[in-house]
TrEMBL record:
It comes from Cherax quadricarinatus. This is RING-type domain-containing protein. Keywords: Metal-binding, Zinc, Zinc-finger. The keyword Zinc applies. The keyword Metal-binding applies. PANTHER family: E3 UBIQUITIN-PROTEIN LIGASE TRIM-21-RELATED (PTHR47156:SF10), PROTEIN CBG20824 (PTHR47156).
Amino acid sequence: MDNDKPEECKVCFNNYDEELRRPHTLLCGHTFCSQCIEGTIKNAQLTCPSCRAEHSATDATQFPINYAMEAVIKKLRSIQVASVGTVSAKCGQDRTRDIRKKLQSLAQEHKSSISNLISECEEALSQLSKYQGQVRDWKIQHHQLQDRLYDLLEQNKAAVELLEQEDTSVLTMTTEGEAGKKQLQTMLETLNTVNTAQEVFTTIDEADHYNVEVEDWMKKCQELFPDVNTVYTSVKVQETIKKALDTITTETGATAATVLQGDSTTTIMEKVKIIIGESPPETLTIDHLRGMSESIKRLVEAGLVFGVQQDQDDLRYSRITLQDGQLYLHVLQHQPLPTHAHTIQVSEVLEALDHSSTLVFLDLAWPGSLARHRSLARAGSLAGSNRLHIQLSGNTTLGRQFVLLCTGQHSGSSYLNTKLLEVENKGRPAECVYGGDYQYNNGKGGAPLLSHQDDQQYQKSVSAGAVGSPWSPGSHRSAQFYISTRDLTGSRHWCRVFGKVVKGLDVVRAAVNHSDITEVTVVDCGVVLTL
């Protein structure tokens, strides 16, 4: 390389500028333009074109601008301009270059604006998808309520029929009672007017007959009334219907509409929350998740519940989602919280788990797979379609380390965005796949996060779905893992097994059959919350 031209990038040989090709210095000390750095980054890794040193990076802006180099370049340009000030052709070239730079800058600004608008559009579509899901849930609930209302109407109809029968019975008995009473009154008047012994005896005999009839009537009344079934049914149906009617409100959301009028910053699902008047605490506890009230459930479904962890000045958040009735704690990341978000300490959530059998998950994606784009999975449209659940067995060092790398608790190190590395014995017994190099993503890294305890016993297995470490716990690559996809035959067995795939082994097998295993990436990971 020509070291006599400090103003020139040693990769593309274009001059540095203050817009598209600013000089950035890598950690190894070598300097290149921003565009070349962007083009060199592959899978969150950058290899220095000069010394081949490896650097973790996703964007050129992660490396500092070499302001000293820019100062030297400015000085050189001022000298060049002074020395060729009389050459008109050179001036014309400079003007052309300036115009080209301005056009490139203008195009870049518009590209950035369009990209931002696309992201906003995707977020709006995500919100619409969630809102549509909520609307459809409400429709289902209304149909269910309608069916229950029909049942109530049938119960009310049956209660009315029972009351009609009871009313008829009461009317009949009342008529009989009135007749008996009238006969007794007649006997009483007759006894007041009798003159002979014969009349007295005759009237008394007749009165005794009516006395017996009235006493029988009174006994029958006590036996017949009230009819237990009729009274109980009537009262209970009335209570149920009144309770249902009393809960109906005539509010139309006018107050919420006034509050939200002209609000363009609150998301659709956040507005739904405001309209229905939910107000759970902003800081949640493990009991809120265990209880899972309707308001908390709605917050989770709206994407407004996050785990939080603060390490010194570093604050990271993990999404908590609800899919198919199961709660998931996703990997910790640096991400902005949405408005009205509610948080819970990640440590509190993990302490509530059964550490002897923790359930973790990995979401895999590769070109052409259903989970090919992580942002779609976040929006909930994929909902873990390429997800596998791994049950960790025993409280082992490798198992605890696997949980740390699924949650990102340990200094941000995690399996997120790592790729699968290699398939062994493809299509044959003992087929398995390797992954887990969170350091370099090429199989050369995966340093342990925890110190190994020599007295620990790991399981052995001959079955597909075994999860273990291909390296001994003390190895500098022991954070890597393997997943067996076919049973072993003969006397062989899988060693250092600390877990097994309990769901999604078909996902791993589909990934193994992909043409290039290194294109299979862990796009999400975390733990399943069995609280």
